[in-house]
Design a protein that fits this description.
By secondary structure, this protein is mainly alpha-helical. It contains eight helices and no strands. 81% of the residues lie in helices and 0% in strands.
């Protein structure tokens, strides 16, 4: 571990905590409205930046950003009154995207997402029990993200904003952590010790595979 790793982890934790506080205050109508709108719009802007980066011509990128800026300028007065809606759309979009990522990998003849991760750690050959477990975990994560999106939607439509924000902005992180804990306990029951990699081992394998794929794409 590099000396800067703890600092990066601490900075990431503080940033996440700040985001939770800002999203909860903004969703419940407390604090500077314009700042909350800017924070809520930031992830959408980041997603657009990734999409616009694929535009080959710089002139097209500039034109696209000008269109976005004009749209924000026109919508800003309305957005100031719909901060909670922006955070709801963030929460819903992230959950549906993750549900699609896990769920789509269960379709067709290919490996499920968690199965692919297991192959990165253990190699191509996995035992039948390991294959069954990784598909079940993939389905469980997809179901979790769909269920949490449904709960968020129901609370947003029918509950006070404070209750919805408590669930979506404050409790979603702990719920994900609890799901990881339950999955870890399930893994201990379902798999032998040599088929239970640590989270750090999975992350290292995923990072190494990503670097290999990026290097391959960069070759002529």
């Amino acid at each position: 571990m590099s000396p800067s790793a703890p600092l990066r982890a601490a900075a990431s934790g503080l940033l996440l905590l700040g985001w939770v506080v800002a999203s909860h205050l903004g969703s419940t109508g407390r604090g500077p409205v314009d700042l909350h709108v800017a924070v809520a719009v930031a992830p959408f802007a980041a997603a657009l930046a990734v999409a616009f980066a694929r535009l080959a011509r710089p002139a097209l990128r500039r034109l696209a950003w000008l269109a976005v800026a004009a749209l924000l300028w026109g919508l800003w007065p309305w957005l100031r009154g719909e901060v909670a809606l922006l955070y709801y759309l963030q929460h819903l979009g992230i959950h549906l995207a993750l549900a699609a990522l896990f769920g789509a990998s269960l379709l067709g003849p290919g490996d499920a997402l968690v199965t692919r991760l297991a192959r990165l750690v253990h190699g191509a050959e996995l035992s039948p029990g390991h294959l069954r477990y990784t598909r079940q975990v993939t389905a469980a994560w997809a179901a979790f993200f769909v269920l949490n999106a449904l709960v968020s939607t129901a609370l947003f439509l029918f509950a006070p904003r404070e209750l919805w924000s408590l669930h979506a902005n404050v409790l979603t992180g702990p719920l994900v952590g609890l799901t990881f804990l339950l999955e870890t306990l399930w893994r201990r029951l379902a798999l032998p010790p040599h088929e239970r990699p640590s989270l750090s081992a999975v992350l290292r394998a995923w990072r190494a595979d990503s670097e290999r794929r990026q290097s391959a794409r960069g070759q002529p």
